[in-house]
């Protein structure tokens, strides 16, 4: 008897359809307040569902991973390697942005005063609050005086800090700790099952988020800054294919194979402009890809705070774009200063809402650009944010595999079996 294969549209294609439908609906309901409110709230509900499961997954996976690792010296070595890798890749991303910005000089091609302004008061307020303590405040805030407060506020780094110590403590008590490990393994399994359910709503969430953006600003608003958007996206693509490609090759990693594995997560991150939306499934897939649970659980969440390659590219390009638009010629020394300031402020603003834009606010004054200049590019921030979020997801996925390879904790047999499974 002949079996008929059921036709199914993959999640990636469903999200793509949601993206196109969102653009169409946004254009149809341009400046319609009821439609914008509906789109915004539906999108917020989807992101809320994702945020609901992220921290339980991080706590359960990281605690179990560290408990299985059980060696504080090994953890210190992995942590050192991870932070060094993050700093190196972020620096390369900023340098690439500065080079491309100097070559293309897109800012000199526009009259900035002809561009529409966007309200940035929320970012100014956030930047002022975040910059009060500087990088030391960020370091101090990593240590949670109240773990449950950090959990309720969704602060990733204090949760990671606590989970690392909880995992080490679990390993130290030996046999009784197995109860905790078994419980948290069950929690992780439940959370990944819930993740699969929530992912079925991704096309609706994407449609609503894109619809809200297009309905608020319209497609015509992109035209004056179209060249800057194009240059930014091409620079990000170059960074992924060439820079990350060379790094991957150096560690014996097939970058395009990795991109194939996480393609749905890249699409989801791009369309929602939210790294958190892709985090649960990215962690799950990387573990199946062959990376050990401990390294996945430590590197991926940490990278979402400290390894934002896409954001670094955008920040350097945007800073030069605004300087050129205001006819401010930056010397090599000033651009090196900009590089250093971006490195410091990006870490000092880690975990701050709208971090990329807040970093720009804290940086551009050092090169003589008026803060008001950001009002002219704030309108396209959402569009650029989609690209930089996708690059951030790719960068953190590659970092996880690189650290795993460097620690010789990459399971090649598991990797081969998984690739054969998803190829069928």
TrEMBL record:
The chain crosses the membrane at residues 12-30, 42-70, 82-103, 156-174, 194-219, 225-248, 326-345, 357-380. GO terms for biological process: dicarboxylic acid transport. Its main location: membrane. GO terms for molecular function: symporter activity. GO terms for cellular component: plasma membrane. Keywords: Cell membrane, Membrane, Symport, Transmembrane, Transmembrane helix, Transport. InterPro entries: Na-dicarboxylate_symporter (IPR001991), Na-dicarboxylate_symporter_CS (IPR018107), Na:dicarbo_symporter_sf (IPR036458). SUPFAM superfamilies: Proton glutamate symport protein. It is a multi-pass membrane protein. It is found in: Cell membrane. This is Cation:dicarboxylase symporter family transporter. It comes from Furfurilactobacillus milii.
